[in-house]
Amino acid sequence: MKIKAASGNDRGQETGKSDEWNKSMKYPWRNTVNQWGLVSIFNHWLMALAILANFFLGYWMVGLDYYDTWYHQGPEIHKSIGGVLMILMAFRLSWMLFSASAMPLPNHRNWEIILAKIVKWLLLISLFIILMSGYLMSTIEDQGIDVFHLFQIPATFKLFEENKDLLGDLHWYVALFMMGLVLLHAMAALKHHLIDKDRTFLRILWPNLMTQTEKK
């Protein structure tokens, strides 16, 4: 029985994969072409939790009575979470400029890759519009935003009072649009995990998690 020796190309490919794996294990906080790092993973989930919490808080606040304790307390928390999101988004955009991005997996179809990119940028643009409209509404009386009594985001831009209703409508309807995108994003992740059974969802949970098929 003859055993075929590995060619130079095969050994080179195996060495390249091994080097990439070792690099991702040595520096799990950094992104590689195969894996999201801890910095991107934590930023992703912190933003996701803050976005969902702020949306449902804002939705709940609309029905509050003037004499309810949360009528005044709720908006302050809402604005504070928005201030944290502004920082997280600024960091995310900066990290995208200086860090690698995980590439699509071999089994990803072209339409999935294109749709994922469109949804990603629509999410970022929608969040930017929501944050800026919220900021402009909160500072319309030339008062900064107090973020959990830790620091204040100054009122840089001054708008007229009559713009407040327009900003409120923009803030609300873009938030609804973004929630639709979030639902689509979550459904796509579950599709990859439950139907395609690939590493798409696992890559954003923790570095170097493997599917059951890869473990065998």
Radius of gyration: 22 Å
- How far apart the termini lie comes to 26 Å
Question: What is the fold-level CATH name, i.e. the topology?
Answer: Fumarate Reductase Cytochrome B subunit
Helicity level: 55-70%
Question: In CATH terms, what is the architecture?
Answer: Up-down Bundle
Structural class: mainly alpha
Spatial order of the strands forming the largest sheet: 1-2
Q: Which CATH class applies here?
A: Mainly Alpha
Domains (count)? 1
What overall geometry do the principal axes of the alpha carbons give? Answer: elongated
Number of strands: 2
- The string of secondary-structure elements, in order, is HHHHEEHH
Q: Largest sheet, described in full?
A: 2 strands, antiparallel
Q: Average pLDDT, to the nearest integer?
A: 86
Number of helices: 6
Uncertain runs with pLDDT below 50, 5 residues or more?
A: 1-18
Question: Key features?
Answer:
6 helices; Fumarate Reductase Cytochrome B subunit; elongated; 216 residues; disordered N terminus; single chain; mainly alpha; two-stranded antiparallel ribbon; 2 strands
